TrEMBL record:
Coiled-coil segments on the chain, per record: none
Lineage: Bacteria, Pseudomonadati, Bacteroidota, Cytophagia, Cytophagales
Family annotation (InterPro entries): MBL_Glyoxalase_II, Metallo-B-lactamas, RibonucZ/Hydroxyglut_hydro
Keywords: Hydrolase, Metal-binding, Zinc
Domain spans labelled Metallo-beta-lactamase: 13-195
Protein name per UniProt: MBL fold metallo-hydrolase
Gene3D superfamilies, A to Z: Ribonuclease Z/Hydroxyacylglutathione hydrolase-like
Cofactor: Zn(2+)
């Protein structure tokens, strides 16, 4: 069984996810934790539940999703996995971080690269890597088919979609990829987004104002 714990952190109200199997093998996804208090909350959860984090994954590399990357890599001794197309996105964060007030941002580099269709194992659980660019050029989604759960980053939100006005964004590509990669999943699939509450594929397929069947185009 795949267990998912979310932490809402930083001024962007980003959702950081910690996932683990029944045996305590875990992966950390999009650690936006920036303050000592945010990081301690995550640490305490790991220690209390006896988890062993073995990997750090980024759905994409915008600042709000990577503020805790360097800290997590060192604190838990884990490698960072991203899609290769996110290399320049990750690299650019150290340049613009001060403009957002993050003067002490510590950059880090990826250790391994995720590929579309890849099967990524977290202990006994398997995640399928879906490639859903548009919000970011190398954006990936982690789909756990066995439980019908999907950690979707900033692709699909409850009643919305990821913004596409940032460098590397493409509105039409995002719409097409949501329809071809996400809306082809079972209707009961739960979407855990990068911001805001969870939702389900069936609901968004029908009612999402950008890509839903009842959307006004």
């Amino acid at each position: 069984m795949l267990h998912i714990k979310s932490f809402t952190v930083n001024p962007f109200q980003e959702n950081t996810y910690l996932i683990h199997d029944d045996h305590g093998t875990a992966a950390l996804i999009d650690p936006g934790c920036h303050t000592p208090a945010e990081r301690k909350e995550l640490e305490d959860y790991v220690l209390t539940n006896g988890l062993k984090i073995v990997a750090l994954l980024n759905t994409h590399c915008h600042i709000d999703h990577v503020l805790g990357n360097a800290w997590a890599k060192k604190r838990f001794g884990i490698p960072l996995w991203i899609h290769a197309k996110e290399i320049p996105v990750l690299k650019s964060v150290e340049v613009y971080a001060p403009n957002y007030g993050f003067q002490g941002f510590e950059s880090t580099e990826a250790d391994h690269f995720l590929e579309e269709g890849q099967e990524f194992k977290v202990g006994t659980e398997k995640l399928k890597i879906l490639f859903v660019p548009g919000h970011a050029p190398g954006h990936v989604v982690f789909y756990h088919e066995a439980s019908g759960q999907c950690i979707a980053g900033d692709t699909l939100f409850r009643g919305s979609i990821g913004r596409t006005d940032l460098p590397g964004g493409d509105h039409e590509v995002l719409l097409e990829k949501i329809k071809s990669q996400l809306f082809t999943l079972p209707a009961e699939t739960v979407i855990y987004p990068g911001h805001g509450p969870e939702t389900k594929i069936g609901f968004e397929k029908m009612y999402n104002p950008f890509v839903g069947e009842r959307a006004v185009h």
